[in-house]
Design goal:
The structure is a single chain. With 334 residues, the protein is mainly alpha-helical. Helices cover 51% and strands 5% of the residues. It has a five-stranded parallel sheet, sandwiched between helices. Helix 1 (2-14) runs antiparallel to helix 12.
Length: 334
């Protein structure tokens, strides 16, 4: 129980847990928000700094954390990823509509970072008066290395036990995470699993090709190619702002991200070790008790109450979150 509590506490404080919630709808009588700045730059191209800068300028930016995670949008993005990866154009169109409506309903007026950058063309079609900010790194190789050291590790980690049993981590790892790399051309659509990450060379080529794709798709008068060192001036000019802060924010969250990942790896390793000890230390009939107490569809410790004190806590909750009695047998083999 203590190991699971520590795991959940770390994930919550670090922002690494994925959740899927009901999509918010605009309050009656309110006008939906309109996107005025579309971030077409990939994650790890200064998007956190751009988010802070746009916030200073009065916008409400959508970002992987501030939008997808904090608002529980993993599910709708995973649905879009699944449709695009499977070549289902009709489902992809409907899912894109859901995503755009969700952004608007939540009051966002700008986008940055993954995964919103992947639908920059659809956003521009929806909001033709918006400007498009293409944030870039110094080189594709530098970007690829940054990805491999940070966000590229998230999908494989969330796709393994026990993290895949928590929240919407499995949807993130199995659909959304692979799509981040496939959509930019680092691998064919639908070809990656949760445990795959393209090579440094493939990522570097994809980064450079993405820049060409954005430049070709966006009218020059609506496009701002930006690096953090450029500061506020190019953004302010494109937005028609006469006044803006003198100092552009510089946020490099790579070290914090890496620290969180390492902490999660240590904690999850401890959880699995405890599960093995618990299952191995009790009578084999405990497996049958747990299977009976955790029928399909039951979630949380509520489904394990009948199993008694031994079956509650870490074992009971994780098995129930697996949504299948067979999950007990899987745990027993690990």
């Amino acid at each position: 129980r203590g190991a699971l509590w520590l795991l959940e506490a770390l994930l919550s404080s670090s922002g690494l847990v994925q959740q899927a919630k009901d999509v918010a709808k605009p309050a009656p009588g309110t006008e939906p928000a309109r996107i005025k700045v579309i971030g077409a730059g990939l994650g790890r191209t200064g998007t956190s700094s751009l988010l802070a800068a746009l916030t200073e300028l009065g916008f409400k930016p959508y970002h992987m954390k501030e939008g997808v995670m904090d608002h529980g949008h993993v599910g709708i993005w995973a649905a879009l990823a699944k449709a695009r990866r499977g070549g289902n154009a009709t489902a992809a169109k409907a899912a894109t509509r859901t995503v755009i409506d969700a952004m608007s309903a939540a009051g966002f007026t700008a986008t940055t970072d993954y995964p919103a950058c992947l639908i920059f063309e659809e956003l521009l079609a929806e909001y033709p008066d918006a400007i498009v900010v293409l944030s870039v790194r110094s080189s594709g190789k530098a970007w690829a290395r940054s990805v491999q050291e940070t966000i590229g590790q998230a999908g494989p980690l969330f796709g393994r036990a026990p993290l895949k049993w928590l929240g919407a981590n499995d949807a993130f790892a199995s659909q959304l995470s692979p799509w981040l790399w496939e959509e930019i051309g680092a691998a064919p659509l639908g070809s990656l699993t949760s445990q795959d990450l393209p090579s440094e060379e493939a990522l570097a080529r994809a980064h450079d090709a993405w820049i060409d794709r954005v430049r070709a798709a966006v009218p020059p008068e609506r496009l701002v190619v930006h690096q953090s060192k450029d500061g506020y001036k190019p953004l302010a000019e494109a937005l028609g702002l006469a006044e803006y802060p003198a100092e552009y924010p510089w946020i490099n969250d790579a070290q914090a991200f890496q620290k969180n990942l390492e902490g999660v790896k240590l904690i999850t390793g401890g959880v699995l070790a405890r599960l093995r000890r618990l299952l191995g230390a009790h009578d084999p009939d405990l497996l049958a008790v747990l299977r009976a107490a955790c029928p399909p569809g039951k979630t949380g410790s509520e489904g394990c109450a009948a199993a008694g004190a031994q079956a509650q806590g870490a074992v009971g909750r994780l098995v129930c979150d697996e949504r299948s009695p067979a999950g007990v047998q899987i745990l027993g083999r690990r």
